[in-house]
Amino acid sequence: MQVILTNQSLTAVEADALYILQFEAEGRPATPSYDAVRAANPEWLAEVESSGEAKGRLFDTTILHRPQGFQAKRLVLVGAGKSDKFDPAVLRRLVGAAVRKAKSNGFAKLVLALDDVYATADFAAAIAEGVHTGNHEVDAHKSKKDERTELVEFKVVTAETPAALQEGFYRGNILGECQNFTRDLANEPGNILTPAVLVARTRAMAETVDGLEVEILDRDRMAQLGMGSLLGVAQGSPLPPFLIIVRYKPATPPTSTDHLALIGKAVTFDTGGVSIKPADGMEKMKYDMAGGAAVLGAMLAIASLKPAIPVTAYVPAVENAIGGNAQRPGDIVTSLSGKTIEVLNTDAEGRLILVDAIEYAKRQGATHMVDVATLTGAIVVALGHIHVGLFSNNDAFRQSVQASAARQGEKMWHMPLDDEYREYLKSPFADIGNIGGRWGGAITAAYFLKEWVGDTPWVHLDIAGTGWLDENKPDMPKGPTGVCVRTFVDLALNWK
Ligand code: BES
Ligand code: MN
Ligand code: ZN
Question: How far is the C-alpha of 202 from the C-alpha of 57, rounded, in Å?
């Protein structure tokens, strides 16, 4: 598929469908594209408006075949909602939805009119992102692909194409593609995407760009270092564990010593271990590596977009399996930092692999850390599938992560992390227990991580509810979402 930004004439451009934004009447901004529709097809538009069939509500579509005065075969008015609520996040969803609908309609060449008022870098980025994420099918393992039309071309038509607009458009193309890379990884089943295969995919990914360096710690190396917490999780599986490290360094040395670490949980399949999960829905636990996948997708984008600060990804990759050698409830392991953990529940494994990665990242010089993990069912209870659960030990850093998330339209909700929660994690026999009882499960999981983080500015993102969609949405089919990729890249690009 070609994704093009051009200043061609709207009336002369050829397309199966030409999309024009239609805002709700109240406060509708005067946009040249909507005016052009009115100028050439006044009766049709007057009827559409007066009949009330298209009110400009978000995702509404009204089609005019063989419009007067346009080369395009169809005009599609897309409801853009209230103009005061319109932002890049809305446009991204609109474009994603339009693309998905167009494919099922059999349209191959699409054009979107981008009017002057909205011709900014961030709107242009959002369009490109929506095109890629909307066009993407998670069908790698279908031998017969869906009949739906392949999108051949998506063109954005603007009055002018200044450099800033082109930069935004370029960035959006990269971000959309990298988010799809993450979605593909997250969708891979546990038999195909083993920890070793994730290593191979990481190496292959790094080969496609300039400036990424991959280092892999294997079981022997991790044992030598003393990563007893991570290795305890891995010991039940015949599949060897790895700690995947991907480094990006800016070409010109940065002026500060800041070094961002992105740490992503990659449990390639989570059976729960001896504290085994119920059978119902267990197949979804293939996406228990969505955090690691998000971090790797972000690194791919970072290598292309080249932020000014160094970023290193740490992805602990293990399978949480059942077997004669699996760790038992009650086992006590010693983590890399020396802290001992009583493994009260082998299904609370994500935190066990993350703390060794966190300690290692600190030793490697991370000054700021963000971890992302499908960590708890409890966050789904708390926030549903709408918000990522966000926890932090540092207000300033939290606010920059939240600012990036807001710019990228990724909803994140700040959760508490008060010291009173430490109580819940007490163990009579070790320094800490790996679970905190029935209540506040997402918080105790985050608090557990915080014990290893110490004072380094840190944000923890629990994506158990947002990394996977159980139902189709207009702009994205059910399955992996690739959440957090855009926020991470935005954070690195806008580092202050
Ligand atoms: N991978 C799961 C969390 C999860 C649940 C992700 C649902 C996606 C959807 C995690 O390893 C886990 O099993 N957590 C336990 C923790 C409990 C044992 C304290 C949970 O949430 O039940
Ligand atoms: Mn688990
Ligand atoms: Zn898990």
Answer: 42
